[in-house]
Write a sequence for this structure.
């Protein structure tokens, strides 16, 4: 269905061993990713949403190439000299406190090839200007900056090696709303200017709706719904997506907080549930849910699902 | 900026990162640290300028003035061959302090590198190194030191080498632990994403960040090393005569403790005061640099 | 991780330690210049006598063979015969170990009984005069040369005041109680001999104080650090918000949790005390392993030195095992996760 | 204390082994010597002084063949081991065979190839391969103690393990308890053949710290305190209830000059060193005057001393002159000592200072005693300190041991001295049983070795011991330092 | 009208520090009436927590200084209360829950132990009766297997579960005032909703007043009757939730709402607020928001006070002053 994809993930699984008995054999495995298929479109922003622990960051690491999936394949459709960069959630630990800002920003460059200092500084100054930092800050150290400024530094660092794709792992979660808006604007500008591809990980649906072209909803290491963000978020098909959207408090809500949800606990990813992963929390769960579900395309999106949901009339609150 | 021409050495970089004003502010708040620091400075000063402050040649014997009581001629009295104890204590401090610094530097450097290496490489290498360190730590250290010192032959430098060897595992543990922590930080993950080499990560991320806990440990170690060195000298495995050394002086002096208490009392006090001062300073620096670090 | 797993892991490590320790000490022992055979032979012995002894002791064999022979013995519980006393090393250690253990445990008791309250007070009243006081005590403790402190207390309490004996485990004029545990204080109580108990107690006071003073500092510092750590935890805030009094917050909430990390330190301290006793025992003529090993090193009595090292290392590993198990017993977090 | 029947001796360290065939340590002998009897014993003069001549102990009479190679001893009757068994010829034969068979240090005192045979129930014959002048005296050694043959049944290797911690002798006392590292208890042997000892119990307390030993002595907890530093003795002498006893002794302190190592291989360097030491300064300063400078190797009080032999004295000018003759010496000279004797360190320091006046560069090395002895044996040293006390009263102890080139190293010739002529003299002197002839031989020898400055003969020191004044009957014998005649001692109230 | 459950007047709190005193709270007036749910909203560092913690006397002794202001709880001035009385108050009439459910429970004690401790401390219930009470509280929090949960350790439970337990504990002794400091920030949205629902229902049911702290405007809007908007240690606007958020009168409140991506058009840039919050070591003399404010003018150099801008609706801004004047 697509023409230009920068990366393709097919059937990615990721397991982490945990515990060790006295012979060093693991007690078992954490199943962080359980069969992810995704196509990432050039120049677009893909939003990834889901509850804590559903494997978003693990997915990011697979995309970055710092973790080899236990199963499945990542295909990269860009030259070897271009790469994927990342911006992390926690601006505190993502910058080395012992490097001056100009070193931090140019690290992706000098870590790989030796360059004269003057050249690096020039590059740093250039990038700093791009992300809205004044050049005189280049000799300071990261801890002297506010959260928002640190996130700008992190973005500048991601840009320095001129990547095609930037993975943004909850880049604004630790920031205040007023600062979040600044960063989101910056990201948009940079994308427009450089034709970057973003993978934007978040649990804030409204940010995803604002920023992303496409959205993938993750649950327990699987994508349960994937499609154009306006379509998916306006008319979710999968019961989990619906639950997520229902749970988000909005300023305009009139109905108060409503009824209490019964089961909010995520199933364990050590012993994966049989059948549909969502069945224990699903209002619509029925007979067909005892088998694993596959992704099925609908008009606007792909939905992992769920005979029941596909056939049940949509019931989305505002 | 002339930055492009200046080569930056890591120590200077670390020091340049210290906010001296802040450090002073913290030290001022803690009278104990301040006191410890002051005594350390005084001790270092006295010891470095021992020739200036000494009233006698520390090795000049005078059999006719053996075991003289403290007085104007000999501030702290004399020893069993009539040497001036005051002057010997001044000179003796040189040995103790030098051993302290030597051990901490040698063990610190080797231990830090080995630990960082093990932590960064991980896998088998790490396991082998750490098990080895565990084994060394399980061996009673004093016996190991005594045996090593005996094997190398008694001399202060050999004692220092023995102590340094035995203390390496402590630094390996600290630096490895710290390396593992730092390796999990997202700036290292970031560096991995742009395919930085292990060497780059070691040089730019690990080492600069483990230096401060290592330095904290090192300051704390100074006190205990001085103590340990004097203990070795006490059992005759340290400094050799006629070189003055505090532990050795206490050892000889104990034969005279009933009638000539000053012989072992003054060098004993010298050890106590110096070690206490270094420990207070180290404690204070730890509190400032690394308030979370647990006492070991 | 289960109890069983921890035990299994530690026992595996024990084998490793046993091997490592014997290799290390054997190597170093043999680096020490000196010939044990000469030592036995005495000053005026002829070379034939020395050679004769060397053969008797197997010292004429190549080192690796000697090592293997030694290891073979150790596996069968035979640590060889002491060169100095001519008796089986294990036999000697069996005599001296309880004395050292009794001293170490008493010192540990002293260090904890005082160190914990001091550490708690210091943390609760951080930066107050009492905190400074405790820190000075603690730092002085770890900075005092035990060998020197020992001399001073002997001089004071024995020499000047005459209140306490200068050394030994018990007044030699008393009948030794029947040996049951090897701990004089316990054995004398078991025998119902209060005089002996009193004498043993009097004898252990000074060495235990001297030895414990160092660790008093270690314990107080550890408890202080752990308490400070716990006191700033969120659950303390919850407890306060729930209306618990300061006293309860400190003693029923913070202290138990602060003791968990401190167990490790206490375990290490006991290990330390066991071999840290070396110098103290010398000063106080305490008939324990410490004095035994010092004499053995001086006399190039390698079997004895190695026996000591192996036993103490073993004790060290076992203490660690105990610490791990206690840890698991008191900290529910470890029992089930991971 | 308060217990008149108990005598307490304070020692610095625990005995190592109590087997007379094994121990070579004076420290052990304090305990072992009174546990056993020997064929002969040192005599005591009328006025209670220890003599260097021997009388029979287990032996009632003895004869030697004219050539001095066959010795026949008749045993006195009535002596019995602590288990009641009679001390007979078989026991003597057994003891000596055991000693030689074990072949440990003590066996060295007896001439090689010595045969011991019970030639009757109560008669033993010793056959030597060649005459050995001091033979009779060796029989008074600790190693010559007669052991109950019953030990054979106590385990392998002649019951050594058992005997290392138990007693099986016929001495006045027997071992009844040993708390390791704390104390040993001796009680009278009920079957002892001699006069019943007065003291009902003897306790040897192990107190490592000299200061503590002294304090215990002052407090009256201890009757006899061994090895107190010189400085403490002076202070003690003035205390109530304590007596510091002085005995002339044959124990000497001297420096080994390694004749094989440069620059000490040059006789003039050795002479220079001998003249650069301030003997009187050391005696006055370090010994508080309690000693005299030696006059050659043989001490005062031992027959055979040659007063005409050279005695060096502190004379820097002549020392410098000698050094000039040698052409100077630039090598660093190592000086070994250990903490075995607290006097050695001050001596070492003083010597270093004296020699530095000559421009000699001395490096002090304090070693564990065992390590130091090893170095004596390998000859890797320049100078070293040593003490020497004789096992029996014969100049042999100070000459054959010290200068015989067959005894290089630890065995006795610790300065690695070699002189064919001297070797010849020694050989002659040992096989002769004519005292006058031997005196002449040793006299000549002394002139040679003092001239060649093989050792630095420092001083001969009195034996001084601090004793509570209620201890009576102690007899000091210069052959038996640190050994007490418990059987003859008593406590007054 | 009855006495306010909580009343704070002119509170000023500062933390001495290396580069000077941190003026965290700079004159806060606030009240909570019986049965009312009051929201405290503001960006990170605006002193929401410090204000609440000072009120309950939970700030670590020695680290802070209250330089001005009075606090009264249930009509009593806390300054006059002894430590004993405060302890009786806390956990009894006043309860507090915190942001991090991970760490807010003692990790080495079972849930049961921790709950019983509170119940027994503040009520006459003992033993089984106390246990029944604990089970009842948990059941109210929709925890079905309550008996089993009592025997569990905190680490064995999910974050949502722990927070529900903490709420249950807070209600153990029917408090008149509950202070909830960002109780759901660390939770997932689905869990957040459940916790908020339970908390809301329980408060209404028992008639307890709630001081609810959050930086999430949407949550505040749904949860609270009345809100205070804080900025740099000051209250800049207060009033009924719907009014303040529907018709913000302070430029800061307005800008904050505009900056939300919720209603933004994906094609257009978000309305961001330039700059960052002021440094509290030297808080601005005048209006704290001046430096970032679109409407700033000369008058803003002096400090505006809260003035009525509608019924029960107040704002501290010279602009509104002028308008209303
Ligand atoms: N290195 C690892 N070892 C073991 N388990 C891991 C590891 N990394 C992640 N996991 C597990 O994998 C699952 C997914 O983790 P991940 O960090 O990808 O979640 P997430 O969606 O990013 O969550 P959050 O929103 O909290 O950041 C979690 O259960 C986590 O515990
Ligand atoms: N113990 C303390 N020592 C020094 N400064 C403190 C302390 N506690 C809080 N502060 C300072 O007081 C100010 C207000 O902090 P507070 O925690 O109340 O903010 P908040 O509004 O609750 O923010 P958040 O939304 O991040 O919880 C901050 O600037 C903070 O740095
Ligand atoms: Mg994540
Ligand atoms: Mg807060
Ligand atoms: Ni799977």
């Amino acid at each position: 269905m697509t023409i230009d994809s920068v990366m393709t993930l097919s059937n990615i699984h990721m397991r982490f061993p945990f515990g060790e008995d006295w012979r060093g054999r693991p007690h078992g495995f954490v199943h962080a990713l359980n069969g992810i298929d995704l196509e990432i479109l050039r120049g677009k922003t893909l939003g990834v949403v889901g509850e804590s622990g559903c494997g978003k960051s693990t997915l990011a690491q697979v995309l970055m190439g710092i973790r080899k999936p236990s199963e499945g394949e990542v295909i990269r459709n860009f030259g070897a000299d271009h790469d994927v960069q990342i911006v992390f959630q926690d601006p505190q630990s993502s910058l080395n406190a012992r490097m001056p800002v100009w070193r931090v920003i140019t690290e992706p460059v000098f870590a790989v090839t030796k360059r004269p200092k003057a050249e690096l500084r020039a590059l740093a100054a250039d990038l700093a200007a791009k992300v809205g930092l004044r050049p005189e800050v280049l000799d300071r150290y990261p801890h002297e900056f506010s959260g928002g400024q640190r996130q700008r530094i992190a973005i500048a660092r991601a840009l320095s090696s001129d990547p095609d794709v930037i993975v943004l792992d909850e880049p604004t979660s630790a920031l205040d709303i007023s600062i979040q808006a600044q960063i989101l604007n910056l990201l948009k500008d940079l994308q427009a200017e450089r034709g970057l591809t973003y993978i934007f990980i978040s649990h804030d649906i409204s940010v995803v709706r604002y920023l992303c072209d496409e959205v993938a909803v993750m649950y327990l290491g699987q994508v349960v719904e994937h499609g154009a963000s306006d379509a998916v978020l306006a008319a979710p098909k999968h019961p989990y997506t619906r639950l997520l959207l229902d749970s988000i408090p909005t300023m305009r809500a009139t109905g108060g907080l409503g009824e209490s949800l019964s089961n909010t606990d995520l199933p364990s990813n050590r012993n994966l549930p049989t059948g549909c992963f969502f069945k224990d929390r699903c209002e619509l769960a029925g007979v067909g849910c005892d088998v694993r579900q596959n992704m099925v395309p609908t008009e606007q999106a792909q939905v992992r699902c769920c005979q029941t949901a596909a056939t049940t009339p949509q019931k989305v609150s505002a | 900026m002339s930055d492009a021409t200046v080569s930056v050495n890591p120590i200077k970089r670390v020091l340049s990162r210290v906010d001296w004003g802040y450090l002073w502010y913290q030290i001022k708040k803690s009278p104990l640290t301040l006191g410890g620091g002051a005594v350390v400075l005084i001790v270092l000063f006295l010891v470095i300028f021992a020739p200036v402050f000494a009233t006698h040649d520390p090795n000049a014997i005078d059999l006719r003035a053996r075991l003289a009581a403290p007085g104007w001629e000999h501030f702290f009295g004399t020893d069993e061959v009539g040497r001036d104890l005051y002057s010997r204590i001044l000179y003796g401090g040189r040995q103790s302090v030098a051993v302290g610094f030597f051990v901490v530097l040698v063990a610190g450097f080797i231990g830090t590198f080995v630990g960082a290496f093990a932590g960064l490489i991980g896998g088998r290498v790490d396991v082998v190194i750490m098990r080895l360190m565990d084994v060394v730590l399980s061996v009673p250290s004093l016996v190991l030191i005594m045996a090593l010192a005996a094997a190398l032959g008694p001399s202060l430098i050999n004692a220092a080498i023995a102590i340094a060897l035995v203390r390496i595992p402590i630094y390996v543990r600290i630096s490895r632990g710290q390396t593992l922590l730092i390796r999990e930080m997202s700036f290292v993950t970031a560096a991995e994403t742009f395919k930085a080499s292990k060497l780059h990560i070691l040089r730019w991320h690990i080492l600069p960040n483990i230096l401060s806990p290592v330095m904290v440990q090192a300051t704390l170690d100074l006190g205990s090393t001085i103590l340990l060195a004097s203990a070795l000298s006490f059992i005759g495995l340290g400094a050799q005569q006629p070189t003055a050394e505090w532990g050795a002086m206490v050892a000889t002096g104990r034969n005279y403790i009933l009638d000539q208490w000053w012989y072992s009392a003054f060098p004993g006090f010298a050890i106590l005061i110096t070690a206490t001062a270094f420990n207070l300073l180290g404690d204070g620096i730890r509190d400032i640099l690394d308030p979370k670090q647990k006492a070991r | 991780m289960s109890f069983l797993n921890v035990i299994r892991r530690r026992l595996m490590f024990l084998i490793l330690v046993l091997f490592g320790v014997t290799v290390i000490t054997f190597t170093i022992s043999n680096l020490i210049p000196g010939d044990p055979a000469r030592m036995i032979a005495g000053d005026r012995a002829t070379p034939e006598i020395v050679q004769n002894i060397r053969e008797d002791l197997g010292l004429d064999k190549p080192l690796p063979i000697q090592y293997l022979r030694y290891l073979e013995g150790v596996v069968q519980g035979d640590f060889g015969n002491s060169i100095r006393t001519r008796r089986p090393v294990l036999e000697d250690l069996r005599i001296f170990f309880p004395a050292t253990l009794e001293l170490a445990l008493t010192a540990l008791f002293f260090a904890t009984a005082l160190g914990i309250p001091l550490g708690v007070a210091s943390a609760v009243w951080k930066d107050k005069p009492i905190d400074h006081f405790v820190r000075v005590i603690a730092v002085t403790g770890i900075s005092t040369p035990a060998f020197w402190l020992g001399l001073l207390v002997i001089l004071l309490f024995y020499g000047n005041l005459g209140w306490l004996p200068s050394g030994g485990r018990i007044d030699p004029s008393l009948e030794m109680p029947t040996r049951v545990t090897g701990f004089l204080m316990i054995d004398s109580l078991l025998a119902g001999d209060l005089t002996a108990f009193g004498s043993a107690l009097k004898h252990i006071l000074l060495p235990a104080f001297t030895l414990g003073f160092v660790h008093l500092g270690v314990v107080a510092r550890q408890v202080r650090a752990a308490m400070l750590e716990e006191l700033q935890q969120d659950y303390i805030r919850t407890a306060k918000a729930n209306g618990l009094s300061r006293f309860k917050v400190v003693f029923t909430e913070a202290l138990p949790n602060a003791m968990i990390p401190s167990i490790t330190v206490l375990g290490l301290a006991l290990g330390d005390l066991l071999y840290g006793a070396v110098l103290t025992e010398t000063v106080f003529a305490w008939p324990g392993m410490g004095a035994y090993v010092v004499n053995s090193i001086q006399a190039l009595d390698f079997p004895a030195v190695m026996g000591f090292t192996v036993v103490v290392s073993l004790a060290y590993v076992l203490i660690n095992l105990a610490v791990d198990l206690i840890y698991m017993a008191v900290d529910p977090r470890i029992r089930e996760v991971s | 204390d308060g217990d008149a029947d108990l005598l307490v001796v304070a020692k610095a360290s625990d005995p190592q082994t109590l087997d007379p065939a094994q121990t070579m340590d004076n420290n052990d002998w304090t305990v072992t010597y009174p546990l056993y009897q020997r064929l002969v014993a040192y005599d005591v003069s009328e006025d209670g002084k220890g003599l260097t001549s021997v009388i029979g102990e287990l032996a009632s009479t003895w004869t030697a063949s004219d050539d001095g190679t066959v010795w026949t001893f008749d045993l006195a009757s009535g002596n019995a081991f602590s288990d009641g068994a009679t001390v007979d010829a078989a026991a003597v034969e057994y003891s000596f065979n055991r000693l030689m068979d074990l072949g440990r240090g003590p066996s060295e005192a007896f001439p090689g190839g010595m045969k011991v045979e019970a030639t009757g129930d109560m008669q033993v014959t010793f056959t030597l391969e060649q005459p050995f002048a001091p033979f009779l005296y060796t029989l008074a050694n600790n190693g010559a103690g007669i052991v109950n043959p019953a030990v054979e049944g106590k385990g392998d290797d002649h019951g050594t393990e058992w005997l290392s911690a138990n007693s099986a002798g016929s001495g006045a006392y027997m071992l009844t308890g040993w708390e390791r590292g704390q104390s040993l208890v001796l009680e009278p042997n009920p079957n002892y053949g001699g006069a019943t000892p007065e003291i009902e119990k003897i306790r040897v307390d192990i107190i490592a710290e000299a200061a503590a030993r002294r304090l215990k002595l002052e407090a009256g907890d201890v009757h006899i305190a061994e090895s107190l530093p010189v400085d403490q003795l002076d202070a003690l002498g003035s205390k109530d209830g304590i007596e510091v006893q002085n005995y002339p002794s044959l124990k000497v302190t001297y420096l080994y000059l390694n004749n094989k190592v440069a620059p000490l291989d040059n006789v003039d360097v050795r002479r220079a060193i001998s003249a650069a030491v301030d003997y009187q300064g050391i005696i006055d300063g370090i010994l508080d005057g309690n000693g005299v400078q030696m006059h050659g190797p043989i001490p005062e009080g031992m027959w055979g001393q040659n007063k005409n032999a050279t005695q060096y004295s502190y004379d820097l000018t002549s020392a410098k002159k000698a050094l000039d003759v040698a052409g100077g010496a630039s090598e660093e000279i190592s000086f070994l000592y250990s903490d075995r004797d607290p006097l050695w360190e001050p001596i070492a320091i003083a010597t270093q200072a004296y020699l530095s006046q000559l421009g000699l560069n001395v490096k002090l090395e304090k070693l564990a005693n065992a390590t130091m002895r090893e170095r004596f044996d390998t000859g890797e040293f320049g100078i070293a300190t040593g003490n020497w006390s004789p096992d029996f009263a014969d100049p042999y102890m100070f000459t054959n041991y010290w200068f015989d080139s067959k005894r290089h190293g630890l065995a006795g010739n610790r300065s690695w001295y070699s002189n064919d002529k001297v070797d010849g003299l020694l050989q002659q002197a040992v096989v002769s049983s004519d005292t006058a002839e031997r005196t002449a031989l040793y006299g000549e020898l002394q002139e040679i070795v003092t001239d060649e400055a093989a050792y630095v003969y420092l001083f001969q020191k009195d034996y001084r011991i601090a004793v509570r004044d209620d201890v009576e009957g102690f007899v000091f014998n210069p052959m038996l330092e640190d050994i007490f005649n418990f059987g003859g001692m008593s406590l007054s109230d | 009208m009855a006495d306010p459950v909580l009343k704070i007047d002119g509170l000023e709190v500062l933390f001495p520090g290396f580069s000077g005193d941190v003026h965290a709270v700079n004159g806060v007036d606030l009240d909570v009436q019986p049965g009312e749910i009051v929201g405290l909203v503001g960006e990170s560092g605006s002193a929401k927590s410090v204000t609440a913690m000072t009120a309950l006397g939970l700030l670590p002794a020695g680290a802070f200084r209250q330089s001005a202001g009075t606090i009264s709880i249930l009509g009593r001035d806390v300054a006059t209360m002894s430590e004993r009385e405060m302890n009786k108050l806390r956990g009894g009439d006043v309860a507090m829950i915190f942001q991090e459910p991970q760490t807010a429970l003692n990790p080495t004690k079972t849930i049961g132990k921790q709950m019983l401790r509170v119940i027994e401390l503040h009520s006459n219930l003992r033993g089984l009766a106390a246990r029944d009470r604990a089970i009842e509280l948990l059941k109210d929090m929709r925890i079905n297997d309550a008996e089993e949960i009592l025997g569990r350790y905190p680490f064995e439970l999910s974050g949502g579960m722990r927070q529900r337990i903490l709420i249950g504990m807070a209600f153990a002794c029917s408090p008149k005032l509950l202070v909830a400091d960002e109780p759901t920030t660390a939770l997932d949205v689905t869990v957040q909703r459940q916790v908020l629902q339970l908390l809301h229902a329980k408060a209404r049911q028992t008639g307890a007043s709630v001081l609810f702290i959050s930086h999430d405007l949407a949550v505040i809007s749904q949860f609270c009757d009345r809100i205070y908007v804080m900025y740099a240690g000051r209250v800049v606007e207060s009033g009924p939730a719907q009014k303040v958020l529907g018709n913000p009168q302070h430029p800061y409140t307005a800008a904050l709402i505009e900056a939300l991506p919720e209603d933004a058009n994906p094609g257009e840039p978000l309305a961001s607020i330039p700059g960052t919050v002021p440094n509290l070591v030297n808080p601005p003399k005048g209006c704290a928001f001046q430096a970032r404010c679109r409407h700033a003018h000369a008058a803003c150099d002096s400090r505006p006070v809260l003035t009525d801008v509608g019924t029960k609706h107040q704002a501290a801004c010279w602009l509104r002053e002028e308008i209303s004047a």
The CA atoms of residues 6 and 201 of chain D lie 5 Å apart.
